[in-house]
Write a structure and sequence with these properties.
The protein is an alpha+beta fold. The chain has nine helices and 13 strands. It has helices at 5-13, 22-42, 47-50, 66-79, 144-148, 219-228, 243-253, 272-285, 316-325, and strands at 84-89, 96-97, 107-115, 126-134, 155-163, 167-172, 178-183, 188-193, 204-206, 236-237, 256-259, 289-291, 311-314. The strands form two sheets. An eight-stranded mixed beta sheet has the order 2-1-3-4-5-6-7-8, with helices on both faces. Strands 10-9-11-13-12 form a five-stranded mixed beta sheet, with helices on both faces. Strand 1 (84-89) and strand 2 form a beta hairpin. The model has no long low-confidence stretch (mean pLDDT 92). It binds 2,5-anhydro-1,6-di-O-phosphono-D-mannitol and magnesium ion. Residues 90, 112, 115, 275 line the site of magnesium ion.
Length: 330
């Protein structure tokens, strides 16, 4: 049976008594925006021929950089959803209040419109991440930070779209993790990966090893154990440099992805709200583990919307071994 993402969301929503349909309407804003983004991503190589960012294209429109386009697509599609009061994008310094922020606005949506965008020029996968939070009790429309500065365990849904050899949407509303592949001929995301479980043990580790001299204690001895086969298999390395694509492989094939603190980025490079939280939510829903290197990612209380965190995420075998090598809270 063919199941579209809309059917799936409606089905999931039935598990929540009193759900009104507003949540599926909200998620449809994300699927619409990401379909617009994927259409542009697929044309990316043509920009040299048809005009680059800043140029005027054949229709007389000024061409935009893809990450700017992706940001505007998400903003545009989500601003029209009455259930959303606050939108926060990695591309914008300040969160945006939707025009109709009212008592009926129950959610904040946080997103990175085009993660790994430096990979676009070389035809490598990029992605969009999103995280959805419920409006806290009593939060005002004039104080968007109050909506956003919640620990990741409060997410009501999270997901990503990876624009790879096909376009795949992976999301969770806390009832497992499900993947949908875009069928471009009909423009619908079709259920292709129901109930994804991260393998307890994989064969790849994924980290930018150029920074290994700067990793905190414990990281390199752990990676060396993987390389030497001390966990039973000799691990191979895979690193794309697009977090969404690196995580997507880790989710499906197992293993571990690490973005540790480095000399340039003492708190790691990835952003807690836009990147680490949605990935950690999906990882846990799929039976994996995600930590900052010292504590569970989903327990971190954010203090600013753009704050960064190290992110180490993977299957239980690798993560249990990693946690044994570092100073961890539990
Ligand atoms: P971006 O948000 O500016 O695109 O940067 C985030 C990306 C991640 O997708 C990826 O994991 C990381 O940067 C790679 O960084 P590095 O080149 O330092 O390994
Ligand atoms: Mg990013």
């Amino acid at each position: 049976m063919i199941v579209t993402v809309q059917q799936h969301i409606l089905h999931d929503q039935k598990q929540f008594p009193g759900a009104s349909g507003e949540f599926s309407w909200l998620l449809s804003g994300i699927t619409l925006a990401t379909k617009m983004v994927q259409a542009r991503v697929r044309r990316a190589g043509l920009s040299d021929i048809l005009g680059d960012a800043g140029d005027t294209n054949v229709q007389g429109e000024v061409q935009q950089k893809l990450d700017v386009y992706a940001n505007e697509a998400m903003m545009h599609c989500l601003s029209a959803r009455g259930s959303i009061g606050v939108l926060a994008s990695e591309e914008n310094e300040h969160p945006r209040l939707t025009a109709h922020c009212s008592p009926e606005a129950h959610y904040a949506v946080i997103f990175d419109p085009l993660d790994g965008s430096s990979n676009i020029d070389v035809n490598v996968s990029v992605g969009t991440t999103f995280s959805i939070l419920r409006r806290p009790e009593g939060a005002d429309c004039d104080d968007p930070e109050q909506w956003l500065l919640q620990p990741g365990k409060k997410q009501v849904a999270a997901g990503y779209v990876v624009y790879g050899s096909s376009t795949i949407l992976v999301y969770s509303v806390g009832l497992g993790v499900h993947g949908f592949t875009l069928d471009p001929s009909v423009g619908a995301f079709i259920l292709s990966h129901p109930n994804i479980k991260m393998p307890a043990k994989g064969k790849y580790y994924s980290v930018n090893e150029a920074y290994r001299d700067d990793f905190p204690p414990g990281y390199n001895p752990f990676i060396d154990r993987l390389r030497k086969g001390e966990l039973g298999t000799k691990y191979a390395s895979r690193y794309i440099g697009s977090m969404v694509a690196d995580f997507h492989r880790t989710l499906l094939k197992g293993g571990i992805f690490l973005y540790p603190p480095t000399a340039d980025h003492a708190d790691g490079k990835l952003r807690l709200l836009y990147e680490a939280n949605p990935i950690a939510f999906l990882a846990e829903q799929a039976g994996g583990i995600a930590t900052s290197g010292s504590r569970r990612v989903l327990d971190i209380q954010p203090t600013s919307i753009h704050q960064r965190t190290p992110l180490i995420v993977g299957g239980t075998t690798e993560m249990t071994e990693f946690i044994r090598h570092v100073r961890h809270e539990d």
